[in-house]
Design goal:
single chain; Serine Threonine Protein Phosphatase 5, Tetratricopeptide repeat; mainly alpha; 80% helix; 17 helices
C-alpha cells in the first residue's frame, strides 16, 4: 500500500506529462494504488492535475482499475468547460468513463447533455461539429439500450448511422470504420425489438466494411471485426441458423483470445462475453460437455473482472453463473448446478442491495441465462471518443 508521502509525490508530478504517465502506469499495475490515488485526488486534486491525468489515461474500455480515476478527471474537466463546444466534448468523454465504470444513469444524463449542446453547433458548423454529434448519438443509443429503453435507443442509433453515412460518403477509411461501428450497434437495436432480418442486414453490412478495413489496417480494426462476428453469430442463432451462428461466434472467440493475450485489461471482458455466447450456441446444438467447458472459462474470467470492478462486471458474472447452472443441470449434476445458481442469486442480491438498499432485495430477478446475445458488452459498444 502506498504511503501518504508516496501519494504526495505522485500528486506533485501529475501536472507534468511524464509524471502523469508514470502515475497511470503505477495505478494500472496496482489497484490498491489506484484507489489511494483517487482518494488523494478527491481531497487535493486540481484542474491541472485533471487535465494531465485525462491526457495520460488510455481509452475507458482498455482498463478496469483506472476507470474511477477517469471519472474523476473528466467530471472535473466538464464542470470547468465554459464554451458549449468544449463542454459538449468534455461531457461526451465523461459519459464514456461513467459507462465503463457501471454508472449507467449518469452516463445517459451526460450523453444527453452533450448531444443537446452539439446539435445547434453542428447545424451552424457541420464540418467542425457534425462528427462529434454523430459520435454522441451513437453513444447515447448504447447507454439507452443498456437501460432497456429500446425505442429511444433505436432512434438515436438510426440518426447516428444516417449522419455517419453522410460523413463516410466523402471520407476515408476512418469514416467507413465509424459507419461500420454504428451499423453494428444498429443491428443490436433492431434485434432487441425483434426486427431480426433488418438486424441481419445491418450486421452483414458492418461485417463487410470491417473485413475490408481489416485487410489494410488489421491492428486497428481487428477488435471491431471480432465484434461484427460476435453480433452476426447472435442474430443468426436468433433466426434459427444455429450452425452458422456458432461458426461466427467461434471465429469471434479466436480473435478476442488473441487480443486479450496482448492486452488483457482491454479485451478480457469481450472474450468472456464471446465465450458465454459460444457456450449457449454449443448447448443449443446438444454439445453439452463442450458448452460446459466454455462457460466455465467465461465464469472464471468474469469472476476475475468482478473482483476488480464489481459495479461494471457483477451482472455479467451472475448471468454466466446462471448459464453454468443450466449446463450442469443438463449434464445430470444437480448439486453443482444448485451451487452455481446459489452464487448467482448472491451476486444479484448484492447488486440490488448496493443500488436500492436492503429493502430492494425483492427486486432480484432472472432473465435468460444464455441472453448475452447482442448486449452492449457483447457488441463491443464501448462508445466512441
Amino acid at each position: 500500500m502506498p504511503t501518504p508521502d508516496d501519494l504526495d509525490l505522485t500528486l506533485a508530478d501529475l501536472g507534468d506529462e511524464a509524471g502523469a504517465a508514470a502515475a497511470v502506469r503505477a495505478a494500472q499495475a496496482d489497484p490498491g494504488r489506484a484507489r489511494a490515488l483517487l482518494a488523494a485526488l478527491e481531497r487535493d486534486g486540481t484542474d491541472a492535475m485533471a487535465a494531465a491525468l485525462a491526457r495520460a489515461l488510455p481509452t475507458p474500455h482498455r482498463t478496469v482499475a483506472l476507470r474511477p480515476l477517469g471519472v474523476w478527471a473528466h467530471t472535473r474537466l466538464a464542470a470547468g468547460a465554459a464554451e458549449d463546444g468544449a463542454r459538449a466534448r468534455r461531457l461526451h468523454d465523461l459519459s464514456m468513463w461513467l459507462w465503463a465504470a457501471g454508472r449507467r444513469d449518469e452516463a445517459v444524463a451526460a450523453a444527453r447533455e452533450a448531444v443537446a449542446l452539439a446539435r445547434p453547433l453542428a447545424d451552424a458548423r457541420p464540418d467542425a461539429f457534425l462528427p462529434g454529434l454523430a459520435r454522441g448519438l451513437n453513444n447515447l443509443g448504447i447507454w439507452l439500450a443498456s437501460l432497456g429503453r429500446k425505442t429511444e435507443a433505436l432512434a438515436a442509433t438510426e440518426e447516428a448511422v444516417a449522419l455517419k453515412r453522410r460523413l463516410a460518403s466523402g471520407g476515408g477509411a476512418a469514416r467507413r470504420a465509424d459507419l461500420a461501428s454504428s451499423l453494428n450497434n444498429l443491428g443490436g437495436r433492431l434485434s432487441a425489438l425483434g426486427r431480426r432480418e433488418e438486424a441481419l442486414a445491418a450486421l452483414q453490412e458492418a461485417f463487410a466494411l470491417h473485413r475490408a478495413l481489416a485487410e489494410a489496417h488489421p491492428d486497428a480494426v481487428l477488435p471491431d471485426l471480432a465484434s461484427s462476428l460476435s453480433n452476426l453469430g447472435a442474430v443468426l442463432r436468433a433466426l434459427g441458423r444455429t450452425e452458422e451462428g456458432l461458426a461466427a461466434t467461434t471465429d469471434a472467440v479466436a480473435l478476442r483470445r488473441t487480443l486479450a493475450e496482448a492486452d488483457p485489461d482491454g479485451f478480457l471482458p469481450d472474450l468472456a462475453s464471446s465465450l458465454h455466447n459460444q457456450s449457449a450456441a454449443l448447448a443449443s446444438l446438444g454439445r453439452l460437455a463442450a458448452a460446459l467447458a466454455v462457460v466455465e472459462e467465461a465464469v472464471a474470467l468474469r469472476r476475475r473482472l468482478a473482483e476488480v470492478q464489481p459495479d461494471a462486471f457483477e451482472a455479467d458474472l451472475a448471468r454466466s453463473l446462471e448459464a453454468l447452472s443450466k449446463r450442469l443441470a443438463a449434464l445430470g449434476r444437480p448439486e453443482a448446478a444448485a451451487a452455481a445458481l446459489d452464487e448467482a442469486i448472491t451476486v444479484r442480491a448484492r447488486q440490488v442491495e448496493a443500488r436500492f438498499g436492503a429493502t430492494g432485495l425483492d427486486r432480484v430477478v432472472f432473465g435468460d441465462a444464455d441472453g448475452d446475445g447482442l448486449t452492449e458488452e457483447d457488441t463491443r459498444e464501448k462508445g466512441e471518443r
